[in-house]
Amino acid sequence: MANALVIRKEHLPTSDKALRAAQYVRMSTDMQQFSIQNQAAAIAAYAHVRGLKIVHTYRDEGESGLQIKNRAGLQQLINDITNGIADYGTLLVYDVSRWGRFQDTDESAHYEFICRQAGVKVAYCAEPFDNDGSMLSSIVKNLKRVMAAEYSRELSVKVHAGHCRIVRLGFSHGGPAAFAIQRVLVDGNQRIKGFLKKGQQKNLTTDHVRLRPGAPKQIAIVNWIFQQCLRGRRYSHIAGDLNEACASTACGRPWNARIVKRVLQNENYIGNIVYNRQSKKLKSPRVSNPPELWVRGEGCINPIVDAGIFQRAQALTIGRYVRVSEDEMLKRLLVLLHRKGRLSAAIINRASDVPHMSTYINHFGSLRKVYERIGYKAERDYSFADRRSEWARIRADLVREIALELESRGRRVAIAPMTDHLRIDGKIGIGFRVTRSEPYKGILTRYYISHLSEASDRWLVAIRLTDDNRSVLDYVLIPRNGLTNDARQCGPRFTDYARERLGFQVFKSPHALSRGIHRVLSIGRTRSAKQALAAPGAQIAKAR
Questions:
Q1: Considering only CA atoms, which of 67, 73, 138, 135 is closest in space to residue 107?
Q2: What pLDDT, in 10s, does the model give residues 283-342?
Q3: Which own/partner contact pairs does 381-389 have at CB distance under 8 Å and 24+ positions apart?
Q4: pLDDT-wise least confident of 2-16, 69-83, 239-253
Q5: Given CB 3.0 to 4.6 Å as the disulfide criterion, which of 332, 439, 507, 525 pairs with 513?
Q6: pTM, 2 dp
Q7: Cβ neighbours for 347, distance < 8 A, ≥ 6 positions apart
């Protein structure tokens, strides 16, 4: 029982479904290193005493129990049971709270009901009662669900209070550092222990994180942004100049008007840390808090922007935005249409007498809906955007399928919260993006990726669509080092000619894709990315 998560299928009976069981295990954070193994060990002992054979494991590692949307393991479990795929008669769960600490206690009861309705019995291995449907078990289960929800609420209050205290003492409360700011790890005596890179965290409760100015080149960019603001330039124009100069943001993405505005409003640059400007407690919608609820740690960072310049920029920002009604927004857009003869996101953003494109989207939902309101028929085909939710589902299904196949091949796989990339063996990242097609020079089809996954991802899977952008054509595996700097920042576009020239592999099915990923991951580090991608004797390896 050393590793209860390993299933040895050669010893499992296949005829008696009542003796076959599955297990669901979940841990909330990556800090709970042994939680999954401890749950599995208790479940294995429970199964051994009752003569059950565990034939399948569903797991969610490092996922909050407040929602189901990011929990691929639980989603797969419910899908298998509702679609009749489950080949077991019992589901083993460590305790009632493993379903989740849902704020609506009926949600976990709903998932248990789905299992029972499909003929799958649910057993809680660490609970002191049998889940036999008796009055006692029903009362205790409901009490446990309420306690699980209350635990999350109490923990949220304690964490918030702790963050407020940390900020008032001048330490960072967590999260990524702003542009031109770096995180410094210090011990309990304020001695510097080192610098934290993106994604790294402190692992001792006695340690703290301070903020300090970053690279001189980034500091110069921040001061340049403030100077351009004082000259009256629009945020979108400032972002455009930065992108033309190939200057990336703190997370490696292109600049836009919102990011520029965030820089201009960030008090880190004058030495302050501000916390609680916005709240998003217990997965509820994000809300903006009034200034009297903000928590400040003042003078805890060496300033990189003069306080007078910062205040002048704030005054300009406040005076720049004038509230107008939605009717007035549409009237201004009509005037712009008559003046330019057509409309696009770029035309709207360049115009000084109409709100920014993002403002229209926030008010009306999308630019297409805005165009419909003023009777304008856009030249662009918006069918891809109309099916955005469908593409998100296709991408998420592919990520889960690839993760399961790689796990079956012995890989350790974790799905990122937004289900757009995998983390394999704890270090190798693979991003997934749906790529729409567009005509290019009248004779070629070009495939466009709107933006890339995390900069740390080593590979990118482009889910290519057919020419009408209505169905999946195939899957292209692209190494990050096979992209130019411009492509990394603005999103790559490539044709079949370019794909063949660069040696990117193409696969016709998810199964073939998983085999290809497993193959390139198995190649030694000494081989180059081009050698890893190119099949012997051919530039492209197509799946049979």
A1: 67
A2: 677 788 888 899 999 999 999 999 999 999 988 877 666 678 889 999 999 999 999 888
A3: 381/469, 383/468, 383/469, 383/470, 384/436, 384/465, 384/469, 387/469, 387/470
A4: 2-16
A5: 507
A6: 0.55
A7: 336, 340
